[in-house]
Structure formats: structure tokens, C-alpha cells
């Protein structure tokens, strides 16, 4: 049976991550906690809004209400990468060769490893940023579509249009597809080779979490009473194909999904604090954590896929050891 080592924190958990095999918990109050031979923490921001790991999973990149972008090492040292004044940094992304992308209001920025920075202005607010898996290409989620920038050159950006507010964005691991979540209860996608549209609708709620499977053949999503998992094996992605549904539990909504690092398995977190693991091949499910005090807001596997760190909106956090 899986065992849970709890960590009682006192604020909304924005993100969890494994750095150097140490679980880290980034909270909305700007403090990053870690379990490293005991409970330790580092004050990083005056209010934290976004966090992600760097491309090597060696540090945590964060953006805050204090207008700063920071990098936190696994030992807790903090480096300020950018300061934008009294503005909120609402999204961060880690790119190739040490590049970092972030969003502030209507602007997207890319900071290169040498400290140089480029700014990309947009007519409406930038909702999210993401880097392509290969090459220096930055996607911006915006109102009525997405924009692809090429920060290392002065090339003209590529505009991908689709009506509505696009709130977060992700490239498929092979770089062939770009998928956004929308303000309405849907996903939208583009096949980048020819600009073909992919409409993924029918959700009862907004999709706020997505995760690609280890080889990019599946995209797991929240926004329903079970995890909705779209197939991306075909050249046109999920078009004309029904998604898998894993872990459906009555009216209890899935709030977080995270695919396993080596197997076609997803960890599924719910609004009532429960966590299940579901296998794509046969839809077999295993209970990892019973209900708690608040919704699951962050989950992350360690590199070996043997432990799962989680955080909730009430601060209840911890590590689940799958082997028990």
C-alpha cells in the first residue's frame, strides 16, 4: 500500500517540484518549503504567482507579485533573474540553454543565460508562456489565439488565431502540436506544420491542469469528474478520436493531473483532496491518498516515478511513497 508522509503548511500551494531528489513546495505567500533532512524553507517573494522547474530539474523558477523573477536552488539559495518594478509576474517558463520566459501584463519577456533580455509587446494581456521542446521558440497564450516568437532572431512572429480567451499553453514533446486551455470549458490546438485546428470540448468545467505522457502520445487534462486523456499518436492528433477517461468519481472534479515519467500512468488529484493513479492501457486505478481538507492544487512525480509530492489549496501537503 502507498504511504503518505504529511507536511502541514498554512497557505495555498501553487507548485511542487523535485530538485536534486528533494521535494519542494511553493506557496502563494512567497515561501518555498522543502523536505531535506527535515523541514526547511526559504522566503522568495512577497506573494508568489507562478513556478516551474528549469530544463534540468535542478532549480525552481518563480514569478511574484513583487515584480521579480527568481531562481531557487535545491539548497535554498535565491538568485534574482529579473525585476520589472511594481508589476505582477503571472507566468514563467524554462527554455533551452538556460533561457527563462515570463509574462507581465501585455508583455512577454525572454531572459537569456548571459543576462540579456528581450521584450515582446502584445495588444492584450499575455496569459501564459511556454517554450518549444527544440529550438528557441516561445509561445504566448493571448486573447483570440496564440503567438509564436523567435527570441534569438528578429524574425516576424507567427500568429495563430482562434476566437476566445486562451489562458495557458503547451507544446507537445515532439513539437508538432500547440495546445491551449480556454476561458470556456475547452481546449484548442494547432497542428504547427499546416495550422490545422483541433477543438477539444465537452468539459463540464475549465481545464486548469494538463500533462503530457512520457513519449507525448497522450495529453491528460483536468476539468471533469475524471481525467480526460486525449490521444496524440496520429498525424492529426486527437481529431476524430474519443479521449480516455480515468478515475471518474461522481460529481467530484479533477483539479490536477501529472503523467508518470516512464509509464503511461497519470496521478489524478481531486477537489476533495483525494489522489488516484490510473493506468491508460487497462484503466486500472489505485488509491494514493484519501480525501483531505482542500482541493489538490499541485502534484509532481520524482524522477524514478516512485514518489509523488502534492500540495493543496489549504496547505495540506506531503509525499506519497508508491511502494509503501
UniProtKB/TrEMBL annotation:
Designated name of the protein: WD40 repeat domain-containing protein
Anaphase-promoting complex subunit 4-like WD40 domain span: 261-322
InterPro entries: Apc4-like_WD40_dom, Quinoprotein_ADH-like_sf, WD40/YVTN_repeat-like_dom_sf
Lineage top rank: taxon: Bacteria
Pfam families assigned to the protein according to its UniProt record, in alphabetical order: ANAPC4_WD40
PANTHER family: TRANSCRIPTION INITIATION FACTOR TFIID (PTHR19879), TRANSCRIPTION INITIATION FACTOR TFIID SUBUNIT 5 (PTHR19879:SF9)
